[in-house]
Write a structure and sequence with these properties.
- It is built from nine helices and 13 strands.
- It has 328 residues and is of the alpha+beta class.
- The chain has one domain: 4-Layer Sandwich (Glutamine Phosphoribosylpyrophosphate, subunit 1, domain 1), CATH 3.60.20.
- β11 and β12 form a beta hairpin.
- The longest helix is centred in the C-terminal third of the chain and has 15 residues.
- Bound molecules: N-hydroxy-L-asparagine.
- N-hydroxy-L-asparagine binds next to β8.
């Protein structure tokens, strides 16, 4: 597929009558808007990448009960982590090419505290280990064997994270051992989740098993503060999903939050961060999507390719919203 240049994209948009919609939450089709008063911001609120309704529910139950956004995003992230059917996160996640399931996760709170684990094996809930790194150590990031040792010291259980299904898929993959990251072959179920609690405080979390059949040792954007996730309680928060290398090269989530600080709506900020990638990197066969939530409860998203959705939960319920994208 030919890569569209930014100029072509803008020209196309102008030709279509300025169809590049920049309003916050413009990704929501008109008929879906009726229940959510997002234009004015709705608090508390939780949004997450992809159609993780179960994750939003777990987070919402805590927000509704007056718990902190930190507790909420951790609880939300644990849902796909524990779900063997979700093959991009935690238990049942696709292994690397050596057959090891290696997990990346990070979490960030309203005070700018953060914790992260990378290349963590054998622990079902890396997000909770990341929170322990934040709360129980003087560090931000622990990796590999050190992260595992820390997790075991904290009482986490060592487990086999492969399932029959992931073993079967891996065996099939070994028949060709071909690795070419492409749009959606990884299914991109990584969860990034952001919430604002009843006190108006923001937190975020991100957790993944990374790209399926990645090189041994590969770490993506998801545990990197500023790339996969960033929270600034004065401004807002953003998380990324998709091909982590593109996100890391542009420090994407930090960029989205800084653009919101400068006055962009969440959707405008996500779009500008995607355009930064599209203008400078080869995006022919890869997907990246951002979601963002501003301090006042407005939200938005944008992706390179169509097909990116995110789940939004407020007191009016949960809906899965289709994001606007650079390509159509
Ligand atoms: C990574 N960003 O490891 C992750 C993958 C992902 O949805 O988000 N998939 O690059």
């Amino acid at each position: 597929m030919k890569k569209l240049s930014r100029r072509n994209f803008l020209n196309t948009s102008i030709a279509l009558g300025g169809g590049v919609v920049l309003a916050s939450c413009a990704a929501k089709p008109e008929e879906e808007k009726k229940n959510l008063t997002v234009e004015n911001g709705e608090i508390p609120i939780v949004i997450s990448t992809w159609a993780n309704k179960g994750a939003n529910k777990a987070a919402w139950d805590l927000l509704e009960g007056g718990k902190s956004s930190l507790d909420a995003v951790e609880a939300g992230a644990r849902i796909p982590e524990g779900d063997p059917k979700d093959m991009s996160v935690g238990y049942g996640g696709r292994p690397d090419r050596e057959g090891n399931v290696t997990l990346d996760a990070c979490i960030m709170d309203k005070d700018g505290n953060c914790g992260s684990v990378t290349y963590l094996q054998h622990i079902k809930h890396p997000i909770s280990v990341a929170r322990k790194v934040m709360e129980e150590t003087p560090h931000v990031m622990l990796s590999g064997d050190g992260a595992l040792k820390f997790a075991l010291d904290q009482g986490f259980k060592k487990e086999d994270l492969m399932t029959d299904a992931s073993r079967k898929q891996y065996k099939k993959w070994l028949e060709t051992s071909e690795y070419k990251p492409k749009v959606n072959i990884e299914l991109h179920d990584t969860i990034g989740i952001i919430a604002i609690d009843q006190k108006g405080e923001l937190s975020g979390a991100c957790t993944t098993s990374g790209l399926g059949y990645k090189m041994a040792g590969r770490v993506g954007d998801s545990p990197i503060i500023g790339a996969g996730l960033f929270v600034d309680n004065e401004v807002g928060s953003a998380v990324a999903t998709g091909m982590g290398e593109l996100v890391m090269r542009s420090v994407g989530s930090f960029l989205v939050v800084e653009l919101m600080r400068q006055g962009r709506t969440p959707m405008e900020a996500c779009k500008e961060a995607i355009m930064r990638i599209v203008d400078r990197q080869d995006t022919t066969e890869v997907q990246v999507g951002y979601i963002a939530l501003s301090k006042d409860g407005t939200y938005g998203a944008y992706s390179i390719k169509p097909g990116f959705v995110y789940a939004v939960t407020t007191k009016d319920g949960t809906e899965v919203v289709k994001a606007e994208s650079y390509e159509s």
